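lol so apparently i was supposed to do this last week
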Amino acid sequence: MSANASIAPTETATQALAAVIEALTAELPPNALVIEAAERRAYECDGLSAYRQVPGAVALPRTRDELLTCLRICREHGVPIIPRGAGTGLSGGALPSETGLLLSMARFNRILEIDPDNRCAVVQPGVRNLAISEAAAPQGLYYAPDPSSQIACSIGGNVAENAGGVHCLKYGLTVHNVIGLELVTLDGETIRLGGKTLDTAGLDLLAFMIGSEGMLGIVTEVTVRLLPRPERTQVLLASFDDVESAGRAVAGIIAAGLIPAGLEMMDNAAIRAAEDFVHAGYPVDAAAILLCELDGTNAEVSEDIMVVRQKLLDLGATEVRTARDDAERARFWAGRKAAFPAAGRISPDYYCMDGTIPRHQLGTVLERINALSREHGLGVCNVFHAGDGNLHPLILYDANQPGQLETAEAFGQQILELCVEVGGTVTGEHGVGVEKLDGMCVQFAAPELEQFHNLRRAFDPLGLLNPGKAVPTLSRCAEFGRQHVHGGQLPHPDLPRL
Ligand SMILES: Cc1cc2nc3c(=O)[nH]c(=O)nc-3n(C[C@H](O)[C@H](O)[C@H](O)COP(=O)(O)OP(=O)(O)OC[C@H]3O[C@@H](n4cnc5c(N)ncnc54)[C@H](O)[C@@H]3O)c2cc1C
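anyway here it is w/ flavin-adenine dinucleotide bound
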């Protein structure tokens, strides 16, 4: 997909950026600043590649002093700062600004402490999600929230997006597993929230910060809860002849009081794409499959397998297979975890949506998504955290075909509106970024959005931290309806040109 055209930056913004680059060049070590155009291009987008913008400059601080220097100089010149973790976000949260500083936190990558006594770990924000569990493994512990991108995404990015994953149904999202945070505000002040204890006094700013998408402060340290590794895990694969039944089975299992460690669903298009890619052993003729992970002691898991298996059959499964060994269990999950790249093999581009709905609406919503797919003439693969009601329709399109990106955007917007219509939300775990600003206009009314802006101003009165992301302006929402497809064009109407 080609980079998008943008309006020329104002002279003042260009001059301010030039002054920031000059000051940073003087104060930072030589390898902490990227200013060559070819090197900056590597940072032009996150995992949502439909929107691209080469950043004005990229800073890669390694120390606290270097970070504070970046903040101070940008503040003095009124230049926006866009924090970035690993750049795997799927909503454009780390989309750069042409006249802003992209602040990569990748070099804050040290695991500071694994504390088995308090079952927690203290890490810097650039540490990869999976690296925490790897470091805790010798103590028999792990970090539960496991985004499918966990091999690459950073814990700082997880905090900013309130990331989820397969195991969040039973063990909670990032917000339920982060117990302490250290942040630096735009003013260079350090805020410490929570810690190793179970409860803290004062307002719950910790929860407030989780999911704040880089707008309130730079996360510099994260304390996460670690859990003991279960004695045994097992996976059941249930096949269904229609997606409605699979959707009803998800709600039925939870309603029966069973909380699996993970409950994931894939429709036929996703099954076929994943099977072609990783040969997971999926039934390619099934309309939908559920992957149901059970964990606990040996005895608990043995008992749960019988109960869940029978429940799935009662709820319409045509076949239920239990992974025969660890290798087969890993293959079942490999198919699910590779579903996004698998979609990339069958279509030049895909647009990943992320909405959440009440579980009992799964079947109905999937039917309606398929009807929209026929209406728009674009294919869709559905793969999602079904137990959480968190949908990930992957809309298949070809950006080189005129009009297809706009059609994909319109289709995606209708899916988000559908989520709100049935009582859900416009994001489950990928955040709002720039992608779902219009969806926020559907979900929230002006008084609510105003309060979001007020809270934001309390931390960042200058509006320099990740401007234009996550919370739409009221004027944008007023415009919404007349013009809500951007065709990937930049500047996004809400990205202020400071
Ligand atoms: C194949 C694939 C599968 C995925 N599966 C899942 C999934 O199962 N569940 C899920 O939740 N997500 C998933 N994602 C999305 C993505 O991995 C998550 O949103 C992740 O949390 C982003 O982390 P990151 O380090 O890449 O952050 P980035 O993309 O770099 O940034 C994300 C946001 O965090 C902010 N940010 C980053 N670091 C900091 C910091 N130190 N301080 C303040 N703000 C910061 C940025 O400004 C931006 O707003 C998937 C992505 C891909 C590509």
